[in-house]
Structure formats: C-alpha cells, structure tokens
Amino acid sequence: GAGVSQSPRYKVAKRGQDVALRCDPISGHVSLFWYQQALGQGPEFLTYFQNEAQLDKSGLPSDRFFAERPEGSVSTLKIQRTQQEDSAVYLCASSFSRPTGELFFGEGSRLTVL
Amino acid sequence: AQSVSQHNHHVILSEAASLELGCNYSYGGTVNLFWYVQYPGQHLQLLLKYFSGDPLVKGIKGFEAEFIKSKFSFNLRKPSVQWSDTAEYFCAVTRSGNTGKLIFGQGTTLQVKP
To answer: What tens digit of pLDDT does each residue of A22-53 get?
Structure first.
C-alpha cells in the first residue's frame, strides 16, 4: 500500500510474554521512528533508524525493549517479558530522507498486557 | 529537557465557531514546530509546520498557526470550524538540526457539534 503499515493492529499479551510488532514503512523512506502513546497522552519517542542504522535509542524505556531494521526497510519492535505498564499504542512513522519532523505515521499497534 | 504543553484537553464547539488551541514549548534554542491531527479511526497526519520565516503559517483545511518566539507559543487557529474538524490535535516540537525526535504535547480533543 501507499502508507505505513503496522501489524498486528491489536495484541493482547499475558504479563511476562514476549511480543513483536512490525512496521513496513513507505517505500523509499530511509528514516523510521517508533513512538509509544499511552492512553490520553501524546506520542513519546522511542527510537530512530536511518536505513539500517539505529541512530537514536534514547527513548527506549528499558532493556526489555529492542528494535531492529536489518535491511533498512521493515522494522520490528520487540518487547521482552511484557509488563502492564507496557500497555500502549506503538506508532511507527517514516520519512523520505533526512528527517525534518514531517513524519508519515502508521495506524499503530495497540498492545494490552494483562 | 524539552516539553510541550497544550492548555486545553477537551474543547467543544458548535459549527462556525472560531477555534484557538494553545501550545507552549520549553526550549530556548531554535526549534521547528508542528501541529498533527488524528481524525477518528485514522492515523496521525501533519496539519502544518513552521521552520523559519513568516511566523504565521497556513496548513490544510483552513488551519493556521502563529509562532510567537517571545512567548514560546505556537497556537493553532481556524476562523470557522466544521463538524469534520472533530479530531485530536497534537502540537509537537523538535530542535533545529536534531529533527529525528519530535516532542509531542498531550493532545487536545476537539468535538464540533453540528
């Protein structure tokens, strides 16, 4: 499709389970971002890739969170040993080249940890 | 640390009323400023942006925003709202030259009554 695609759209996990969230950016977009949006809050930055290089991971809340983009296209955000506080919408966004703040967002993956 | 504050969390207007949503940021350096909008059931999308130049910027659907540097503000305005403007609005900022990381406000939900 023409937009940023994320899957799954909804994920329910039991506490302690590992989850993987996938992002397929717009074709040709070299920059890719992950944001976390808690209920009633604005998105919060997690990490940023330029092609396959992870240039900024300062927003990852703990070492349970890991992101990769091995071929510079599709990206996966992995959360190990999920906790209830990980419940949120995880947004992926991409931009064509050097990021300017103009991002194209996906619809998000809503994670609920029971 | 940078932060963005949106004064109104929930705004209810009748059609044809004028709209102003407040946004203040805390960062003393040069910034790029954005308003993003999320219509019900849709992804976040860019409404308008300010990088430099004329502090009054115009976006899609008749929206405009004014950057007032002395007040660290970037308020969003529309002279006459429509029912289709019902959405959540997010103000965001990034430092010029470090545009990989958007800092978002917590959002304002606008409900327009027909």
So the answer is: 999 999 999 999 999 999 899 999 999 999 99
Using a CB-CB distance cutoff of 8 angstroms, which residues of chain B are in contact with residue A43?
A: 44, 90, 102, 104
Angle ∠(B53,B4,A100) on CA atoms, nearest 5: 45
Which tens digit of pLDDT belongs to each residue from B23-37?
Answer: 999 987 888 999 999
Name residues whose C-beta falls within 8 Å of residue B98's C-beta, 6 or more positions apart in sequence.
none
Coil, strand or helix at B36: strand
Region of B99 (left: φ > 0; alpha: ψ -120 to 50; beta: rest) is alpha
CB–CB contact A91 B103 (8 Å): no
CA–CA separation, A24 and A18 (whole Å):
20
Contact A7, A106 (CB under 8 A): no
Inter-chain CB proximity A42 and B51 less than 8 Å: no
Residue B26 to residue B28: CA distance in whole angstroms: 7
In whole angstroms, give the CA distance from residue B48 to residue B89: 11
